[in-house]
Predict the 3D structure of the following.
Amino acid sequence: MRNSDIITDNFNSEPEVVKINDLPECNQFEYDLMEEKDFKKYMKDVERMVRNSMEYRLMVKFLRENMDMNKCSFYKNVNNIDTFKIKIHLHHHPFTLYDICYIVYKKRCAYGEPVDVEDVAKEVMHIHYNMMVGLIPLAETPHELVHNKYLFVPLDRVYGAWSAFYDMYFPFMDLDYIENIRENVERTKAYKESEEELGVLAKKYVYVDVDSGIYDIPDYATVIQAMEKRIATINEEERLNHQPMRKVIHFIKANGEKETNNSIF
């Protein structure tokens, strides 16, 4: 497995020697797979290694460019052919990527094979390159709805031989996975693109009806009157702001009376 994020173009043919004088004995494992918290971290690391690998990214690129997987399967007009600002996700169905990683892990445990993160990820990618997975392109909204189980994806719409994975890894699947596949098969047989199935994607308008009359649209005469009043206020403010400044001079007469003289600068 090659991580494209850490590959550089700086290749040096000279061998690099790292000298270690005292190599301590390895007596700790990176994961305690008997602990639930560690096992979840382990599975997430396997899944992350698959997604970040160069092999996975090249496969996704090939599918987008050659298998028409750059447009949503539900919203036909939504695609990222011209811009990547629109996200089209390649959704795994009926087995998610996590499901595949977990089933592969169980198979390797059953056969006593190494379960290092890289070994499990390599077998998962081998399954992908043999197209023993189900994939369907989805836009942001349908993708969220599918994950939250508000939108059903028929099995005949996915690309890939997911059934080959099911047959090969059946002995290592939990009962939940098997029942989920059977349920998906039955729903696919009875599936119809009806309002009942796709109603969650339909446009719905919400109108606000307020009885108090606060939000009622005023009549034409009231609008004109309000606009004229506002224009008069603005003109008065402009006039006051542009008046010339005056200097006030006080003169004291001989008899002690004050005389004021206003002069303009």
Summary: The beta strands are 88-92, 135-139, 246-252, 258-264. The two ends are 84 Å apart (CA to CA). The longest strand covers residues 246-252. The chain has a mean pLDDT of 84.
